[in-house]
Amino acid sequence: MTKSFARMPPPSTMRLTLAWLVAAVAYVALTLVFGRDVNWDLLNYHDYLAFTSTGDRLDRDFFPAGIQSYQNPLIYAPFEALLRSGLNSAGIGVGLALIHSANALLLMLICMELARSLPPEQRRLLIPGFLLGATSPIFLSHLGSTFVDPTASVAVLASVWLLLRREHWTLALAAAGLAGFAAGLKLTNIAFAAALGLTLAICRRPYGWRWAWETAAAAAAMVIGFLVAYAHWGAILSSELGNPIFPLLNGAFKSPLFAPYDGNIVRFIPQEPADLLAFPFRILQHNSWIYVEVAAPDLLPAAVSVLAAASLLIYVARRSPAKVADAQPSASPERFWVFLAAAALTWLATSSNGRYALPLFMLLGPAFALLVGRLFPLKAAGIAAVVALVLQWFNTYSAGVERWGAQRWTEAWIPVELPRQHRSLPGAYVSLDAQSQSYLVRHLHPDSTYINLIGSHHSIPSQGPAFARFQRLLMRHPERAFAVFKEAPLPGTRPSVRTMAEQKSALLDRVGLRIDASSCSIVRIDNAKPLPGKLIEVVNRQLPPQRSRRIFICRLTPAPPSPDLKQRRNAASAVMTTLEARCPDLFYPPGPQTEGLGTQWYRSYTKYDNVLVSVHLEDRTVRYWLTGQGKVKVIGRLDSWARDLATFDCSLPERGRRGVASITTLHDMGPL
């Protein structure tokens, strides 16, 4: 970097294109090194939503991929197009990386807009600022994967770029429209749409009738953008299921097919003021379940928080007219800072999930560069920006960019060996796993029905309108009804198919079905050879060994419910109902379906995503924990339940923190 660079004219289209190509090539190389991402959510709902992006299956399936089944599938269309293109998995990964590289291009454009407000000598600080944002650890962990957040973030960053441009008010309307469109693609982007709308309202001055008209026009543009992306899907959901954003906000829309509950995404939201203040610093840690399920340590949230606080204190100290006149020129375009603050606050309040905030974490790069330029002399600021970049890269490298399920590159993204009968003949398939295995749907006969009876966030109850729909769909193929479940033995064991079928039959007892263990067929997943080729072989050698999995498909037969299981289920349900009455905020919504395997019964309460309660009839204990915790807490014993219940303080286990270091066995964790 030279001083002459600061005085150069804005990059030409050719230079910008070349810079983007460099970023795209780097992203493609990283994607190939990271491997094929066979993440939990891909097997649960990504592949299903991609498959249904070309045509819905609401008339045939019911919660096929859990509650995520009803997201807008439009955002998954690029992944589906790549799957149908005939490319192998490496080619599909390259295609996803190229789509995701549009974020880098837009971040460059945002940095160029920010540079306009800087003194010429400070503009080069945005080079390390751009690199910090473009290599954000949370972004890299999603790069080239099937998560759609890096795709949806393109629309968010485009809206921010238009927000920062000042040529004409129509660009602000376009920014609002794009923000609404991003929210329609993925509802978690509503946080960014709200932040952008607030920014337009605050920063458009003077206030008056013209301000009111322009603010209303921006709001209308945002609504139109949302409807362009979502109206078609919302109309289908409303017609078929009685709620245009089913199952969200069902307390307002009251679809009879789901609990009257509005839904929360609070898995990572700090629950106490001290946790909120510590949150940016906890993100520095090399631990999972802090702001995303995998480890993605990032120093920028803490650094930007400290620098922003220091900048604010300096501003307050210099707020007299005389001191303001002596202060350095502002390196902070107002719209950028208002949007960044509003986006951070809305994100913290609505989810605190890093996956939903990729644009925010990318924008922290240029934000850091602006702050060091404001607080330090130019040379010190340049050193600070470069040191931060080196530390961030070293931190990312030492922690490792975690994939949810890195696999070697194979011909298909999900190699599936499905017996011919399930491809050629329609049937009704009932999934009994928290992970729905809904990726099987694209391989089944197209007229088949797929139902996830017991999902990670929701179980279909055994009474009411939802159960009636379950029974109606099951009767579409009464002679060809099947259970679907994965092989999930305890470490060091491999139970027989009959043993697993008997255990799963206990889950089906409440709906009057039983598994015929003699009819089970095996579906092999990821049982494919790695791709040939010298370059791919080099990449594959450094990836984890191939992990094949087995899924069982077994015929279902009608069977009367067991009176013994019913009595045990009712006894466990009564205990958990008393907990709901004692702590209505913690165990909410009340009355979820009780599931279990005879001696262990549990309920999943979704308000805190999720609080799980288990009743163990053998050792007569009642336990609870949160999803993502490795420690189970005992609430009390059945022999002294009234006394133990009275002393229970209704607090979240481990103060709501996930990823607790202690390890418990799968047996202790209950029948998950």
What is the fold's blueprint, element by element?
Blueprint: H1 3-6, H2 13-34, E1 36-37, H3 40-51, E2 64-67, H4 77-83, H5 89-100, H6 102-115, H7 126-134, H8 137-142, H9 149-164, H10 169-185, H11 190-203, H12 209-241, H13 250-253, H14 273-282, H15 300-317, H16 321-326, H17 334-350, H18 358-375, H19 378-399, E3 406-407, E4 416-417, H20 420-424, E5 428-431, E6 449-452, H21 465-474, E7 481-486, H22 497-508, E8 513-515, E9 521-525, H23 534-541, E10 549-558, H24 563-582, E11 595-596, E12 600-605, E13 611-616, E14 621-626, E15 633-637, H25 641-647, H26 666-669
Parallel strand pairs: 5-6, 5-7
Antiparallel strand pairs: 1-3, 4-9, 7-10, 8-10, 9-10, 11-12, 12-13, 13-14, 14-15
In short:
The chain has 672 residues and is of the alpha+beta class. It is built from 26 helices and 15 strands. Helix content is 49%, strand content 10%.
Overview of the molecule:
With 672 residues, the protein is an alpha+beta fold. The protein contains 26 helices and 15 strands. The strands form three sheets. Strands 4, 5, 6, 7, 8, 9 and 10 form a seven-stranded mixed beta sheet that branches. Strands 11-12-13-14-15 form a five-stranded antiparallel beta sheet. Strands 1-3 form a two-stranded antiparallel ribbon. The chain is globular, with a radius of gyration of 27 Å. The model is unreliable at 1-9, 321-332 and 660-672 (pLDDT under 50). The chain crosses the membrane at residues 92-114, 126-148, 168-199, 211-233, 299-316, 336-356. Keywords: Membrane, Transmembrane, Transmembrane helix.
